[in-house]
Amino acid sequence: MIIAVDADSADAVEAEHLLHGLLESATGPAVACTHVVPGGHLALSITATGFDQAALGHEVGSAIIRAGAAEPEVAGPSRLIRGAYVAAVETALGTAGRLVVFPGQENARGTLTAADLRAHCGIDQVEGLGGLSIEDTTLVDTRDYVRPVRRDGQVVLLVQPAAGGVLIPFEVEHQLKCCSNH
Amino acid sequence: MGHSHDHAGHDHGHDHNHGHDHNHGHDHSHEHGHGHGHDHDHHHPNTELDAATTAALDESIPDTDLSPSELSRRGLLRSAGILGGAAALAVSGAEFAAATTPTGHVFGAGRRPNVWLAGDHHIHTQLSSDGMYRVIDQAQHAAANGLDWLVITDHGGATHARIGVDLVNPQIKAARSELKDTLIFQGLEWNIPAAEHGTVFVAPGSREVEVLKQFENSYDGGVQNAGANTPVNEQLAVSGIQWLGQQVDRRRVQDAMFLANHPARNGIDSPHEIRNWRDADPRIAVGFEGAPGHQAAGLPAAIGSGSARGFYGNSPNANSFPGYPAESYRTWGGFDWMTATVGGLWDSLLAEGKPWWISANSDSHVNWNETSRRPDGSNQAQFDRDGRYMDPVYGNTVNRTAGDFWPGFYSRTHVGADRRDYLSVMEGLRNGRVWVDHGALVKGVEVEVREVGKRYGEPLGGALHVRRGRAVELVVRITAQNVPNWANFVPLLNRVDAIRGAVTGAVRDRDTFTAPDTKVIRQWDTSGKRGTFELVLPLGKVEAPYYVRVRGTDGNRSQPGYLGAAIDPQGPQLDVVGDADPWVDLWFYTNPIWVLPTR
Fold first, then answer.
1. Hey, of A172, A181, A182, which one would you mutate to test binding to chain B, going by the most B CBs within 10 A of its CB?
2. Are the C-beta atoms of residues A153 and A94 closer than 8 Å to each other?
3. Is the pLDDT of residue A7 over 90?
4. Which residues in chain B have their CB less than 8 angstroms from residue A180's CB?
5. What is the DSSP string of B24-45?
6. Interchain CB contact of A10 with B (< 8 Å)
7. Which of B142, B267, B491, B529 lies most in the core, judged by the most C-beta atoms within 10 Å?
8. Residue A3: is its pLDDT beyond 70?
9. Residues of A in contact with B300 (CB under 8 A)
């Protein structure tokens, strides 16, 4: 089943914190993603074999897709239902979403070849920024932080050039907060 | 309308009803003696209003009886809440901009500049919560490093709006009298509602602080809590630009200008927002940073911060425009992807046949290898209380992880001006008589497009109006660098590229960010050339409108452009995170010149 939740999370840190709390109510191997909701916030989705719906408070929007269902069951405040619905559908179709928890992630540590990432870490495709060509033997320093994205049903890890001639994931753990006088 | 005639200009405790009724900046200082709204005074005893404005103000004239320019002016006045009917503004920024977009070109008459003035419009001081220097620290380094003009741009925000914008002014005035040959503008770094930061600055005058403060209180995304990516916030940004134009029209300040800063850094300046800013008032919104500051940030960890060049190291966030690719979040040869990509976002703006210029600045907050620091006890709480950090002290330290250079040390924006004065710099910027470089790659660049056989043509930023069928040529006059830069070597200009693109008119989709016809049409090997030399490129007979622009490099790092080798065989290279030495990857870029056929 797919459980999608919109709690109006402002950024990835907030969304992932909420995700990890909700994962305690999921059973079976889980895939958990964040999703961008137009208008400037994030929703999230969890794919699992079971989920205790009591964990969902009344203040979040939710959309649940059960096996064989024609459409998501939605609940919660109307302004948050849309984001949850979008997240559920994106995960159901495999069109979008940023993977936070996924099978194979535990192996994505240290420096690995692109072939290793595909064979053991749940990554379908390693893609280089700016036309960088990626061979099977290309080394990727995961920096123990991997957040691939879903695209056309595939799990894609974007990588970029870094110091020392290695590649690192495009998304780094600590986003630069320079000039953050907001 | 309920105007409070508050000349101090900080009556901002209004109920900010985001939704319909944008009564921003409604505490105008009424130097002109007409009332507003229902008891409209038909005698305009002032002589400072043009006819279009006078007609637009006269609400007894229905919209249908106004000329297009008068109608556009009325739209501006309504959007600022000066006229009634502001409730009609529950439209998106895009709709409003589309309805009030001026038609035709907005080009000044071409004249060769008399003087080139180098400058930097993006500099922070101790009045920024992430800054540390005094104004004089920045200004005297800028002057010593060879800059002629600079803009002090501390971050907008609650503390700055309350007190910082006032506190910095005496420092700026003192620096002006200390450094007689340096033009020092007061500006601020605007948190553009729903978007990134931008430089806003005004011509010096008795009301510079008053206007900036009123602007910041009414339109800053931080002050107004308008950072989220919503149509209402996007409209607030458009209104802010228009409000600045109104202050110029009403002579509160002699001139005002806005340029968007580090536009691609977080993907939150969507293409339609940039177009809406430009169209809100093309006199005010003139361009964006072609290259961001923080150019030392990519120095390797052994000697620097080991971060991303320009501090362009992020990935999309919840407010990012979904159409932007991952590549847009990194610099390319130190330049922003919007500018570095031939046929990319900048070119898509130029291909509309409307001016939009690029600049290059330091964004200096704390400079690489700084030996001073904030004194003990000068912390965030002290800043929030006093509106500024205490003066820096010498600190027995070397700050290797700071990512910035002093103004003029690495990035320069060269403005062709009539004279060495404040208004001429602003006019040169507005006219796009501008080229930018890194690391003093070249000593001088003059570009002209002229009819073959004619002695003079149109300079940078201009538009050559030429009879269809006449032959024209591009002339690039370069003076090679012969003195060392601030890294103490003489840079070598090894290649110059000419770029050409068709003018295809206004885009239907305002989120367009490609210009398919634009490509590199000529590459010159300039290695070994000394002194002043000319590169001439025949452009053929004029059949349809187009523009040309020029770029040059030391040639150390190149790769096929983001849109492919057929468009740009040797463009700037994607910068490497943690290993981008800015001194061995130098580029200059010029603004464009248009060629427009007449019958």
1. A181
2. yes
3. yes
4. 130
5. TT------S----TTS------
6. yes
7. B142
8. yes
9. 163
B1 vs B490: which has the higher pLDDT: B490
Identify which of B345, B377, B346, B434 has the alpha carbon closest to the alpha carbon of residue B108.
B434
* Beta carbons of B222 and A181 less than 8 Å apart: yes
Beta bridge partners of B467: B598
Fill in the amino acid letter for B547.
Answer: Y
Q: Cα–Cα distance between A70 and A89 in angstroms, integer?
A: 11
* pLDDT averaged over every residue in chain B: 87
Given an 8 Å threshold on Cβ–Cβ distance, is B326 in contact with A158?
yes
Round to whole Å and give the CA distance between B199 and B293: 13
Share of chain A above pLDDT 90, in %: 85
Q: Check CB contact under 8 Å for B579 and A163.
A: yes
Q: How far is A68 from chain B (nearest CA, A)?
A: 31
End-to-end alpha carbon distance in chain A = 39
| Close Cβ partners of B478 (under 8 Å, ≥ 6 residues apart) | B442, B444, B445, B446, B493, B496, B526, B529, B532, B533, B534, B535, B552
Residues 58-87 of A with CB under 8 A from B: none
Percent of chain B topping pLDDT 90: 79
Closest chain A residue to B231 measured between Cα atoms?
A: A39
Eight-class DSSP state of B4: -
Q: Which residue from B220, B222, B277 is spatially nearest to B93, judged by alpha carbons?
A: B277
Whether A133 and chain B come into contact, CB under 8 Å, resolves to no
Residues of A in contact with B330 (CB under 8 A): 129-130, 160
d(CA B411, CA B439): 7
DSSP A119-177: HHSS-SEEEEGGG----TT-EEE-TT----EEETTEEEEEEEEBGGG-EEESS-SS---
- At which residue do the structure tokens 């002579």 appear? B251
Residue at token pair 């150019």: B295
The position carrying tokens 């959007």 is B79
Q: How far off is chain B from A150, nearest CA to CA, in Å?
A: 14
Residue B486, Cβ neighbours under 10 Å: how many?
16
- According to the model, what pLDDT value does residue B71 have? 73
User: Shortest Cα distance from A127 to chain B (angstroms)?
Assistant: 11
* Residue type present at position B121: H
- Which residue matches tokens 């209003």? B49
Q: Which residues contact B574 (CB under 8 A, 6 or more apart)?
A: A129, A130, A132, A160, A161, B327, B330, B332, B559
CA distances from B372 to B132, B145, B366, B379, B529 (A): 9, 19, 10, 15, 41
Smallest Cα distance from A56 to chain B, Å: 23
B505 three-state secondary structure: coil
Q: Is B163 helix (H, G, I), strand (E, B) or coil?
A: helix
Residue A153 contacts B, CB cutoff 8 Å:
no
Q: Between chains, do A181 and B307 touch, taking CB under 8 Å as contact? A: no
d(CA B393, CA B399): 13
* Residues B157, A176: C-beta atoms closer than 8 Å: no
User: What pLDDT does B72 receive?
Assistant: 66
Question: pLDDT tens for residues B118-171?
Answer: 999 999 999 999 999 999 999 999 999 999 999 999 999 999 999 999 999 999
As a dihedral over the C-alpha atoms of residue B504, residue B505, residue B506, residue B508, rounded to 10 degrees, the angle is -50
Which of chain B's residues have a Cβ under 8 Å away from the Cβ of A39?
228-230
Amino acid residing at B463: A
Question: Quick check: B576 and A168 CB within 8 A?
Answer: no
User: Shortest Cα distance from B389 to chain A (angstroms)?
Assistant: 14
**Token digits for A169?**
């994931």
Structure tokens at A87: 């997240």
Contact A158 B365 (CB under 8 A): no
| pLDDT, position B420 | 96
Exposure of A125 in the CB half-sphere (CA atoms within 13 A): 13
φ, ψ dihedrals at B587, nearest 5°: -140, 150
